[in-house]
Amino acid sequence: MALEEQGIPSVAVHTHVFARLVRATAYANGMPKSRQAFVPQPVVDKSAAELREYIEGVDPVSRRPFMQEVIEGLTGPLDAADLTGLSFERSTPRLLEPDAEENLQALFEKNHWTDYLPVVLPTEERVAAMLKGTSQAPNKVVGCMRPTSFREFWEYTVEKVAVNAVMAGAKPEYFPVILALASTGETAKCSSTTSMTNLAVVNGPIREEIGMNCGIGAMGPYNHANATIGRAYQLLSQNLQGGSVPDESYMGTLGNPFAYSFCFAENEERSPWEPLHVTRGMKANDSAVSVFFGGRHMQDGFGPRETWEEKMRRCLSAGDGVFPPLLILDPIVARLFKERGVESKRQLIDWCAQNAQLPAREYWDEQWVQTLLLPLAHAGVEPYATRFKAKPDETVCMFEAKDINVVVVGGETQGAWKILGARHQATVSVDAWR
Amino acid sequence: MALITVHDPRGYPPKVTGKRLAPRPESLDGRRVWLVDCLFDNSEPFMNELRSWFAQHLPKVETRMIKPRQSWVDDPEMRNKIASEGGAAILGVGL
C-alpha cells in the first residue's frame, strides 16, 4: 500500500487462507480496494513446477485465472472509490447498553472479548474499585498495541486496562503490575501463524505484597495473583489492540496453551544468583515485571546430572534459532550449578551461548532463521553474516549471550529445569504504576 | 430481570484516512514490473516462476527482481528505488 501512495500500481500476492486478514488490513489502512491476488496455501515446500501451476491456475478467492487478477490489478481502470480510499472515524463506547448478566456474558463471548472462560463482568462499581489500586488518573493514556507490525496501533487508558483486569478476576492490589505490563505495548496476542505468546516474570517487593507464588507450582494454576495477572495480560492484549479473532486478526495455526495465562514470580530468596530485574538494570528493591515473547517450544530436564552438559546441548539445539533460550531453574538446580562452580547466571548464560550449536546446514534450513535472519546475513549484519560464511557441516553458535536469560523459580520439591524459547522484550517498573 | 451496566473492554482505534490507488497504465507493454520478493519461505522461487511467466507470455514487459532489506519490516530505501525508477510492482508471497 505504501508503494501505491508513491505512485506505483501494485498487486500483493498472498496465500488464500489470509484473505480475510488481508481485507481487514486494507480496510484499516484506508485502502480497502487495494489490489490483491491469491494462490493456494501452502507455498512453503512447493517445487518450482508446483509454483508455476499456481501461477497458471485459478485464484482460489476470486475463482478467476490468477494472472488475470494480477494483470488487471495493475492495468484495470480505477473507479471513484479507488481515487479517494476510505476515510472514517471509529470509536468504542465507554459503557455498553444495560442488559442482563447472562446476556452480557454471551455478548462478550460473541464479540471475542473473552478467552472462552467466564469473565467477571466489568461493572462501573468493579472498575471503580480496580482503579483504587493505582494513583494514576483513569483517563491517562497507558500506551498502544497492535497484533502485528502491519496492523494499526490502538490506544488505551488506565480505565480501559482496569476493565480488562476486572474481567480477568484480578484484585485492585495487582493493578500496578497489570498497568506495567500494558505500558510495555508488547502484545501477548500476536497474530503470527506460528502461535507465539508472551509470559511475564515479576520481581521485587511487590511479589510478597500481593501474595504471588514463586514456590511450588508457580508456573501452574495455584495462585490467584499469578493466574489473574497472567490472564489480565492476555485479555487486555486482545481487547485493547482491537482483537485477536481467528482468521481475522489471529492466524496461529496451532494456538498456544500459554496464551490463557503465563505469569509467575522469581524465587529471589532461594536463588544463589542476582534476580532478573537487577540483571536488566533495576535495583533489588524495585518492583518490576519482565515480558518474554515466544513460548513455541519447551525442553526440560532434572539435575544437573553427571551428563548435564550433553543433555543441555541437545535441549538448546532442539529449539529454533530465532527464539533464544530462557532457562527456568528450580532453586535446587541453581544451587547445584553453583556447587559445580557456576558462580553467576552470567557464567551459565555464557556456557549456553558457546554450546548452543548446530551444523550451518541445519541452522540455515530452519524456516524462520531463513526468513528472518538470512536477509540480515546478506546485508552484512553480525553475527549472522559470519554464521552464513560457515561451510554446511561446520557448527555455528545459535545465540548470543546477551539474548539468553535465566530465572529461578519453584518450590524445591524436585531439581527440575526447563528451557523455553522466549525473547526478552522489556523489563519495566511496577512502582511507576502504583 | 435485573439489568446491569458494564464497560466496553476495547481500546481506541485510530482514525482511518483514505488513500488513493496509483494511476494505472492501459497496458504493461514496454513497462517495467518489479517483482518484490518479500523474503518469506519459498517466495524467491515463486517470483522466479512469475518472471519466467512474463518472459514467456508478455515478453514486452521488463521484469526486475528486488528484495527488501528484512522481512516484516518496511524498507523505504527499496520503495524509493522503485518509485524513482517507475513501473508497477507485484509483491509476494506474503501475508
Model description:
The complex is a heterodimer of chains A (434) and B (95). Chain A has 434 residues and is α/β, with parallel strands linked by helices. Chain A has helices spanning 2-5, 19-28, 48-56, 66-75, 80-84, 101-110, 124-131, 158-167, 175-183, 206-209, 224-240, 276-279, 308-318, 331-339, 345-355, 360-365, 367-378, 384-389, and strands spanning 10-15, 36-39, 141-145, 154-157, 197-203, 263-265, 288-302, 325-329, 357-359, 395-397, 405-408, 416-429. Helix content of chain A is 36%, strand content 17%. In chain A, strands 6-5-7-12-8-11 form a 6-stranded mixed beta sheet. In chain A, α8 (158-167) crosses α11. The radius of gyration of chain A is 24 Å and the shape is flat. Chain B is an alpha/beta fold. Chain B contains 2 helices and 3 strands. Chain B has helices at residues 43-57, 76-85; strands at residues 32-37, 62-66, 88-94. Chain B has a 3-stranded parallel beta sheet, covered by helices on one side. In chain B, β1 (32-37), α1 (43-57) and β2 (62-66) form a beta-alpha-beta unit. Chain B starts with 31 loop residues before the first strand and ends with a strand. The interface between A and B is large, with 102 and 66 residues.
Name its key features:
heterodimer; A: 434 residues; alpha/beta; 6-stranded mixed β-sheet; two-stranded parallel sheet; 18 helices; 12 strands; 36% helix; flat; B: 95 residues; 3-stranded parallel β-sheet; 3 strands; elongated
Question: What's the arrangement of secondary structure elements?
Answer:
The complex is a heterodimer of chains A (434) and B (95).
Chain A: H1 2-5, E1 10-15, H2 19-28, E2 36-39, H3 48-56, H4 66-75, H5 80-84, H6 101-110, H7 124-131, E3 141-145, E4 154-157, H8 158-167, H9 175-183, E5 197-203, H10 206-209, H11 224-240, E6 263-265, H12 276-279, E7 288-302, H13 308-318, E8 325-329, H14 331-339, H15 345-355, E9 357-359, H16 360-365, H17 367-378, H18 384-389, E10 395-397, E11 405-408, E12 416-429
Parallel strand pairs in A: 1-2, 5-6, 8-11
Antiparallel strand pairs in A: 3-4, 5-7, 7-12, 8-12, 9-10
Chain B: E1 32-37, H1 43-57, E2 62-66, H2 76-85, E3 88-94
Parallel strand pairs in B: 1-2, 1-3
